[in-house]
Amino acid sequence: MTSKRPASKGPATGLPLAAAVLTGTVALYIALVAFGNITDFDTNREFVRHVLAMDTTFKDDDLMWRAVTSRSLQDTAYLAIITWEVLAAVVLVAATGLWAVGLRNGNRTARARQVATVGLLMVLLLFGAGFLAIGGEWFAMWQSEDWNGVEAATRNFTVAGIALLVTLRSA
């Protein structure tokens, strides 16, 4: 004999819960990255300066015209990165809160999913377009033994991408 039970209103489980946890994890990560860049400003400013200056790449004349050697432009780029990180963190923290409320209220998570999608896309743009495409390829960061963030950017892009897939699948 089989019985049909109504959907449980107990603790959240499955993909919505996984999406909430992953969103919160990426929110924590990007918030800590932004915090670190603000409180230890000079460390990663040097990273950005070296990548944009292309001063530790192979010095190929066909590529070196791309180098940005103006300290003002380098610092502007770094401030833009930090601003983007802060905004992404704020969006993802808000999304995490929306997940918590939505899961508590019987899986009413549509708004959380929307906000998380925006925040995760922001992280994907930062690490995919910003660090992998622009830093890694346009400024040939992959050539540098000292200032190469391709591996870290790939790791961050992958985690945010997985979180986005789970988030979109949780609908």
Automatic annotation (TrEMBL):
Keywords: Membrane, Transmembrane, Transmembrane helix. The chain crosses the membrane at residues 12-35, 77-103, 115-140. InterPro entries: DUF2165_transmembrane (IPR018681). This is DUF2165 domain-containing protein. It comes from Streptomyces halobius.
